[in-house]
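Note on ligand handling. Small-molecule inputs were canonicalized before submission; formal charges were left as drawn, and no protonation-state enumeration was performed. Where a ligand contained multiple stereocentres, the stereochemistry in the source SMILES was retained. For calcium ion, this procedure yielded the string shown in the input block below.
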Amino acid sequence: MKTWHIVAFIVAVAQIAQAIAQAHEDDLLFGEENGQVVVIQPQPHPIRTMSSVFGSFILDVGMDFYWEPNTGLDHLRSCRVQQVWITPGLQATKSGFGTVFCASGCPNFFNLPTNGTPHHHFIFGASQPGVYVWDVRAVNAVARDGRPLADMAHPYRIYMVAGNVRRLFGSVNAPNYQGNLYNLPLTVQIRQAGTVVAQQSQPPNRTARYDYMVGFTQSGTYTVVAKLSKHLSRRADNFNLSSAHRLDWTFSTPGDVNNDDVIDDADLLQVLFAFGSSDPASDVNGDGVVDDADLLTILFNFGAVGEGSQN
Ligand SMILES: [Ca+2]
Ligand SMILES: [Ca+2]
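Structure output:
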C-alpha cells in the first residue's frame, strides 16, 4: 500500500466515523401527541449533508422512541415506520437486514422495536450528486399504556444533499386548491435554448424545512420552469444558478388535469366523464368530488397555456 493510499483510507474511515457520530442528535424520535403518533424531534428535520466516501455519498439516519425527560419512560410500545416517498437513486441499508428502503422492490417499512430495541440506524447511500428526499410516516402505533394511536397525519421529510449541487428551495402555493398539496407532484426543470437540461420531481411537503428542495449539478444561466400537477406551469427567466437560491412558487391557474400544460377540451372531457365521481385525478379543486365547481374552473381558464409552454 502506498502512503497516499493509507492516508486516503484513514481519511475515509474518519469521515464514516464522523458521519455516524454526528447523526445521533438528529435521530428521529417517535412519541405521542394528543392520541396520535408523531415525530417529537427534530422538528423540522435539518437539511442533512451526505458524506463523500470512495466516490459515493452516505448518511447515517437513526430512529428511536422519545423518552419523557422527567420519567425516563418511552411514549410508545411499538410503531411501524412506513416510507411514503423516496427519490430514485437513494437507498437505505442496515447491517443484517440488507436494503430496507428504496424506490422499488424493498420492504420500505421497519417495525420499532425490532430485536428488542427501538433504536436503529440506517445508512442511506447515493452514487450521484443531488438533493435526495426521504418521506416517512409512523403508523399502527401503540402507546406505552396499550392504547392504539392515530397514524401520523403528514409525512415527515429529510432532505439529503450529496456533493456539489446548486440548490433551489422554497414554498409551493396553490391558492385555489382545497386538498392536500402533497398529492400533487412538483416538477422543476432547468432549460437552455428551450431544451430541458435537467429536471427533478417530488411531492411538496408543508411540514418540512422547505416545501420543496431540488438540486442540479449544472451551473450558469437557465430558465427555471416549475409545474405542479393539475396546474399550469410557472417560469423564472435568466436565472443564474450558482449556489443555493430561494425560489417560491404560486400556482394560480388550476384545471390542467391531464398535465399537458394547456387547459382545453381534453381536460373538459376528462372532468365530464368523471362527473359525479370522486376520481382524484379529475378533481380540479381537491375537495373530494368531481362536480360543477371543477367544470366551471376549467371553463373559466379555458385556452390558458402554462408559462413554461409559452415562447
Ligand atoms: Ca391539459
Ligand atoms: Ca372538486
